[in-house]
Write the structure tokens for this entry.
Amino acid sequence: MTRTYDLLVLGAGPACHPAARRCREAGWSVAIIESGPLGGVCPHTGCNPKKVLMAAVEAVTAARHLAGKGLSGEPAVDWKALMAFKRGFVSPVDARIETSYAKAGIDIIRGRGIFTGKNTIAVDATEYTGKKILVAVGARPRRFDFPGSERLDTSDAFLDLDALPYRLAFIGGGFIAFELAHIAKICGAKEVAILTHGDAFLRNFDQDAVSRLVDATRALGIDARLNAPVSSITQSPEGLRIEIPGASLTCDRAINAAGRPAAIDDLGLEAAGITHNKRGITVTPYLQTANPDIYAAGDCLDAPYALTPTADLESKTAGHNMLTGNTLPIDRRGTPSVLFTQPPLGMAGLTEAQCRARDIPYEKKEYDLADAFPWKRLGETVGYSKILTAPDTGEILGAHILGHDAEEIINAIALAMRNNLPAKALADAIWAYPTCSYYLRYMV
């Protein structure tokens, strides 16, 4: 027997919650289909556990910067205790979310859902029909096919290691590789490498800021290599042997940190009439797929961002449009993105390269944050900002902040961008002194 719901949601991560709640509050019957932990990657194996581990990294880094400036000695990271602290955040999540959904009258169906028709999804031997369906399955680790790729661990596994390995290699040149490499090295791993096949690191970020961050990364003792595609991984008596062009290195663990494509290849999207490409599901500005009864949100989309905040926004937008009949196009203006390294790197809007590629006129203002009081008092030695504005209106086209508190400064700039405030509004604002944000008046 097929059970029918007003809304079926495929996936229980950040792109699920707002739409499911909004439709349930409107009186719809709602069910969520999920094969993994409720809440998705972010609270279990992504943002939250990473940031818990990063708290220790931040403390060690702060102590190092103030060594000889009033502090002596350095905190020692107890990885086992740190991991227990992290698990205290992660362990309750699934049960807490399940209880919350039950109180709201939202059903949870455990298992992998596969489309069997335009409005039907099978979970094991049971079929469910949704008058509307939201696809919110997120992404999964990239797959490699070189010899020995099965010896790679995922970033999920790294974030749950009982002991920190002596030698680690991170395969990839994006934010996952850099964040985890910084955690590993500052927490005490002796040999840490980042290996990317490409000729640039962190392509989505401003490359002037990235250059400074890469220098800081190497200064930590992290071996960051460009043009280093892995050709094989073999087990040797000394450990895992990784072969790259013209060289090899040995490590105890090799981590797949090469990004996450949309987890859609086994969903049976063709049966539902959902179109997609290698980047993800294609949708209209209303988050509607080629099947008018099916919407999509989150990391499974072909979209500019794969972030928890944008997944949340897309879910809210999809929920609104399912209820009202497509009245609200997605608006991602002023989306901040942060790389949580030491120092952190935040960005919002366009990079300088993107402005040039699109023939967008811009003015650029760069500022050395490391030479300003809020950073000097902390002993910081790396800090940089670049703000891009439209010459005629002062509209903020892009903002790039490297250094302590970058994650909070970029939030303020992103808020201004989302509300169409010109750079002058930030310069003229009254900011608490002597905070990092106060120096926005000089950055813009």
Summary: The longest strand covers residues 126-135.
